[in-house]
Amino acid sequence: MTDWKNFSPKTNCLQDKVIAVTGAGSGIGSMIAISLACHGATVILMGRNVEKLEQTYDDIESHNAPQPAIIPIDFETATQEEYQTIQQSIEDAFGRLDGLIHNAAQLGSRTSIANYPVEIWEKLMKVNVNAPFALTKYCLPLLQKSKTASIVFTSSSVGTKGRAYWGGYAASKGALENLMETLSDELTETSAIRVNSVNPGATRTDMRAQAYPAEDPATVKPATDLEPLFLYLMADESIGITGQKIAY
Ligand code: NAP
Questions:
Q1: Atom of ligand 1 at shortest distance to CA of 128?
Q2: 165: part of which helix (H) or strand (E)?
Q3: Residue numbers annotated as active site
Q4: In a domain, 230, yes or no
Q5: DSSP code string of 96-136
């Protein structure tokens, strides 16, 4: 069990850490990136929409937090060469990586398996599963250079128990949970890297509105409620916690 609920983050708890966040231009990812930076981290903002990433960048700068970096990448079309280039550019700029938060994802279709469009299923697997795998694979040498590295996979309640009409999204999050466990198990004896997954629960974002169009967004918690959980998992207080599925 983790005690993130009792975690009171100090303003400098992530000082000198270099942490990459995917999907950092909007929703939960943007909130995470700003929060990490405001607690001292140098954040690498990754995503497909440069304008949105620049908005997060400007928010971070307005807080006088450490200057972030932007790495544009579309996980739907990313090639091995692009992942290799990302590894090299992080190596050149920072020499290591202390944290990697896989947050970018797509919802896909909310329909039965019988009606599920094959091309949407394939896209979800690329963005929600293949990309976190490939990014992790190519970032592992950088994470190995940190004494306290932490990887977080952002999952969902349907990642541990499938549900009707959540099709490709549920299957992709199930795969992510399994990837998290496999990686944690592989690294436990051989490295200091900890690996966990987070189920953020219902959170007021575009994806939530897409999944529940009839819901009043005001009834759903804001992304900022997730701050202590993500800060805890990136801070040294969570050293030793690995292989855990953590639900908000
Ligand atoms: P969101 O607002 O839709 O944000 C998703 C992020 O992923 C966006 O920044 C989006 O970029 C990025 N993304 C999508 N496709 C991409 C691609 N091909 N390449 C690069 N980036 C891409 O959703 P959210 O609610 O913040 O979700 C964040 C995470 O929490 C996801 O993993 C989601 O599954 C999980 N989650 C959310 C909830 C919830 O209630 N909100 C509940 C459970 C789990 P663009 O801005 O360019 O679209």
A1: 32
A2: none
A3: 169
A4: yes
A5: --SEEEE--------S-TTT--HHHHHHHIIIIIIHHHHHH
167: Cβ below 6 Å to ligand 1?
Answer: no
**Angle, in degrees to the nearest 10, between helices 27-38 and 50-62:** 30
What CATH number corresponds to the domain at position 69?
Answer: 3.40.50.720
Measured by CA distance, the residue closest to atom 43 of ligand 1 is 156
Please count the structural domains in the chain.
Answer: 1
Atom number in ligand 1 closest to CA 77: 18
Among protein residues, the one whose CA lies closest to atom 46 of ligand 1: 26
239 located within any domain: no
Residue 102 domain flag: yes
Read off the pLDDT of residues 151-207 as tens digits, 9 standing for 90 and up.
999 999 999 999 999 999 999 999 999 999 999 999 998 999 999 999 999 999 999
Residue 56 inside a domain? The answer is yes
Q: Report CA-CA distances (Å) from 226 to 4, 46, 193.
A: 10, 19, 22
Whether the CB-CB separation of 74 and 130 falls below 8 Å is answered with no
Cα separation, 154 vs 121, whole angstroms: 19
Is the beta carbon of 47 within 6 A of some atom in ligand 1?
A: yes
pLDDT beneath 70, residues of the chain: 1-2
What is the domain extent for residue 151? 4-234
Whole-model pTM: value is: 0.98
Q: Is the CB of 48 under 6 A from ligand 1?
A: yes
Q: Which two tokens stand for residue 25?
A: 């231009």
